[in-house]
Amino acid sequence: MRFIKEIEKIEGKKIIVRVDFNTPIKNGKVLDNSRIQSSIPTIKYLSEKGAKVIIISHLGRPKGRIDENLRLDNVVGELSDLLGKKVNKFPNYFDEEVKNGVDKMQNGEVIMLENIRFSPNEDGNKGTLAKDLASLADIFVLDGFSVAHRTDASVVGIPKFIPSYVGFLVEKELKNLNKVLENPEDPFVVVLGGAKSETKVPLIEGLSEIADLFLVGGAVANSFLKKLGYGVGNSLNSDFESEKIMSLIEQKNIILPVDLVVGEKDGSRNNVVNVEENPHSICLGSNVILDIGPKTRELFANKLQNAK
């Protein structure tokens, strides 16, 4: 793995930077710009060194289709403000306009492509998308740690065609992760959530040798509860097979929610349901599990008080 400061002769190079600017937006306003801020050091460094910086990001889950509500216009405005310079955005992620625009870039200029998940070939690295994107640049830099695990064209595909490096954000996260894994302090508590148990189960299995406790919420908790025999209705969940996980739950190394907020998918008509010791139906009909409940929040907070 190579780091960004190892790039030689940056000036004049066209450099794709894959970031994660998947930020909450309401009424045209970015509500939380922390993800954008986290990649500013990498973008500034390259721009100030005279690179031609091409930003690639996603927003939401358009599932390979154009969704006018998920264009990156508001994101690029926020990026421009944080950089203190104008960042232009193309209305597409790859076409003749993009190619011509990149060819005309000046040293130090920063541009952004449209939401990469508008492409049906992004998820799973299909078709020629990765090769097409790679043709725009000389170098690829990954600065989106939160997407580093994905098999998307803009994450794992582009590096197959051009030299690749990691940016300051990914370098920082890797150093922190190595510190935790190589010399963890006790008690070592892991907080996990997310949508896909298939990506979290191997993580828990791998960390189980050094972690003291796992606090699990989100759809991953739904999946674990379903495996234990609880009814989760139409709540987001996924199947998995792992004797290790079931053993950790039985040994109380994995702490699951003791109460859950249940309601309609839009969040309406919600109420709190206690998770009893014996399996039962947590939600019925059109209701789904929306979040952990107040007792669980208190339980998790108490477990985290002495965590290192």
UniProtKB/TrEMBL annotation:
GO terms for biological process: gluconeogenesis; glycolytic process. GO terms for cellular component: cytosol. The lineage of its organism: Bacteria, Candidatus Magasanikiibacteriota. Its EC number is 2.7.2.3. Belongs to the phosphoglycerate kinase family. The keyword Membrane does not apply. It catalyses: (2R)-3-phosphoglycerate + ATP = (2R)-3-phospho-glyceroyl phosphate + ADP. Pathway: Carbohydrate degradation; glycolysis; pyruvate from D-glyceraldehyde 3-phosphate: step 2/5. This is Phosphoglycerate kinase. GO terms for molecular function: ADP binding; ATP binding; phosphoglycerate kinase activity. It is an enzyme of class 2 (transferase). InterPro entries: Phosphoglycerate_kinase, Phosphoglycerate_kinase_N, Phosphoglycerate_kinase_sf. Keywords: ATP-binding, Kinase, Nucleotide-binding, Transferase. It comes from the Bacteria.
